[in-house]
Write a structure and sequence with these properties.
globular, 5-stranded antiparallel beta sheet, DNA primase DNAg catalytic core, N-terminal domain, 18% strand, 10 helices, alpha+beta, 6-stranded mixed beta sheet, 376 residues, 3 domains, binds zinc ion, Dna Topoisomerase Vi A Subunit, Chain: A, domain 2
Length: 376
């Protein structure tokens, strides 16, 4: 699918910041890499660039000009997404047909066992081989036909698309390097909105590489977007939350919800995503931000954190609301809040001004830039 990269130019400026230099894009223009802006980026690159899956966005600051190279893709790139009930039903059935194995060679020790118990129970496995995924889709169709008496349609379910023979396909048309963990992202009512994929194996930590299960740019395919996961819809059901806690990633959210049951936990897919949804979920409530410890030392992460803080503070000012906003910190030997909680480390609750005071100079520079004109 990726046809290579190209630099932006005067003729084809960056679709995110509108400038003709620094940034780049894939040749098929599906993905933009912006060196200047990470606001609402789908991901951050290791260099701190914003990575934007362009066709998920209907409106960007600078629309690409018509003079671009002829698009090779014949399919509409942004098919609309099916209603949540349909997505939920299909993803749930998929996970049931291909569940995370209960006892397997994936067990690495007690901590891993704990994670399996707490976090992996609801995950599925996306097989690495395309042929196995075809088989999975076929068995889904068979069981759906048996149970519902109808042929299932996958239209508008991110990750599914239509092969050249008209048959439904799932995931990449190529083999992956290994089996992938299929991680459901739940909405505020507990329904599965989309799924993330994570390579299983050697990496014991939960902060490996994640990608969305999407079928952007494929025939009848569509994008997953970057939804906010509501762990609280499972662990907090029926209660009225006073505090919303946000982490990066579903697996960390599950651990946080387990250890901090009086919080309503949500998780974004990466530090730079879903800021609006986070602010909305925490409206008129206390907001606790528990991003990885590198928000003190990595300028790109600090910038993303400050962007979220700025949005939160502006909304609070607009609503004349003064519910606290806290940044969580812990022993820096632990990267994520999950590891800190599992190890029994204590948490510190920082004010925004405390956080700013603890940043490295580069981080402070990036963060204060986002907070110009705002008094936290
Ligand atoms: Zn740019």
């Amino acid at each position: 699918m990726l046809t290579g990269y190209q630099r932006v130019s005067r003729r084809i400026p960056c679709r995110i910041c509108g400038k003709p230099d620094w940034c780049s894009t894939t040749k098929d223009h599906n993905i933009a890499f912006c060196a200047r802006s990470v606001t609402n980026a789908d991901r951050l690159s290791s260099k701190g660039w914003g990575i934007f899956y362009y066709d998920r966005r209907s409106a960007t600051p600078v629309q690409a000009r018509r003079t671009q190279p002829k698009e090779k893709t014949k399919y509409p790139k942004s098919n609309s997404v099916a209603p949540i009930e349909i997505r939920h039903r299909i993803y749930r059935a998929l996970i049931r047909l291909s569940p995370f194995p209960e006892y397997s060679e994936l067990i690495y020790g007690n901590e891993w066992l704990f994670r399996q118990e707490q976090e992996f129970r609801r995950c599925g496995i996306l097989p690495k081989l395309a042929t196995e995924r075809h088989r999975l889709v076929r068995s889904f169709i068979k069981s759906h036909l048996k149970e519902e008496g109808t042929i299932s349609t996958f239209k508008g379910v991110p990750g599914f698309w239509q092969g050249s023979n008209g048959r439904p396909r799932l995931g990449s048309d190529l083999d992956y390097d290994g089996d992938l963990l299929l991680i459901p992202f739940l909405d505020s009512t507990g329904l599965i909105q989309a799924c993330q994929l994570k390579v299983i194996g050697k990496a014991k930590s939960t902060s490996g590489k994640y990608q969305w299960l999407s079928s952007i740019g494929k025939r009848e395919g569509c994008s997953s977007g970057t939804p906010l996961h509501h762990e609280g819809s499972v662990g907090f059901r029926g209660k009225t939350p006073t505090t919303v806690l946000v982490t990066e990633g579903v697996l960390k959210a599950a651990a946080a919800q387990h250890f901090l049951p009086d919080r309503y936990v949500v998780a974004n897919g990466g530090v730079a995503t879903s800021h609006q949804e986070i602010v909305k979920a925490a409206r008129q409530k206390i907001l606790e931000i528990a991003f990885d410890a590198d928000c003190f030392t990595n300028p790109h992460v600090a910038r993303a954190m400050a962007t979220l803080l700025a949005l939160r503070i502006r909304e609070q000012q607009f609503l004349f609301c003064d519910k606290p906003t806290k940044i969580l910190a812990w022993d820096t030997r632990f990267k994520g809040i999950d590891d800190a909680l599992i190890a029994g480390a204590s948490l510190k609750y920082l004010e925004v001004s405390d956080w700013l005071g603890l940043l490295t100079p580069e981080c402070f520079e990036e963060a204060s830039h986002q907070l110009v004109g705002i008094s936290p």
